[in-house]
Amino acid sequence: MINLSGKITSSIKVLNLTPLVRFELTDNHEAKVNCLIHQHALNFLALAEPNAQIAVYGHYNKRHQFIVNKFMIQAKGVNQFMSHSA
User: Fold this and answer.
1) Cβ(58)–Cβ(19) under 8 Å?
2) Domain limits at 67?
3) Which residue of 1, 22, 62, 64 lies most exposed, with the fewest beta carbons within 10 A?
4) Which element (helix H / strand E) includes 43?
5) Which neighbouring-strand residues pair with 34?
6) CA 77, CA 35: separation in Å to the nearest integer?
7) pTM score, two decimals?
8) How many structural domains comprise the chain?
9) Rounded Cα gap, residues 79 and 77, in angstroms
10) How far is 85 from 70, CA to CA, in rounded Å?
11) What top-level branch of life does the organism fall under (predicted)?
12) Per-residue CA distances from 80 to 18, 23, 30, 58, 85 (Å)
C-alpha cells in the first residue's frame, strides 16, 4: 500500500451514485495526484473540503489514478485528525 499526504486542491466531485468520488491531491513536493474513493465515500464527503490537509493510503490503477483505501483528514482549527479505513 502506498502512503501519500498533502492538501486537497480541487473541488470534490461525485462521479456516480454508487458512490464514486474524485478529488485532486497536491503532495508536499507540489506533485498533483488524481484520487478516486469508493469505499467510505459518503464519510469522505462529510469530512473533506477543499484545502484540507489529508493523508491517504491505497494503490494506483491502470490509468494512473490513485485508488484510496484509507484516509485521514485534519480537523478544522485543531491539531487532531479524523480517519476512516476499510
Assistant:
1) no
2) 2-78
3) 62
4) helix 41-47
5) 24
6) 25
7) 0.84
8) 1
9) 7
10) 4
11) Bacteria
12) 30, 22, 24, 22, 17
Residue 44: CB atoms within 10 Å? 22
Confidence of residue 74 (pLDDT cuts 50, 70, 90): confident
Cell 480537523, residue? 75
How many residues are present in the chain? Answer: 86
pLDDT above 60 for 2: yes
Residue 20 · residue 12 · CB < 8 Å: no
CATH number of the domain that 68 lies in?
A: 2.40.50.1010
Is 36 part of any domain? Answer: yes
Closest Cα to residue 25, out of 39, 6, 44?
Answer: 6
Q: Does the structure show a pLDDT above 70 at 78?
A: no
Instruction: Report the alpha-carbon distance of residue 20 to residue 34 in Å, rounded.
Output: 13
> Quick check: helix, strand or coil at residue 78?
coil
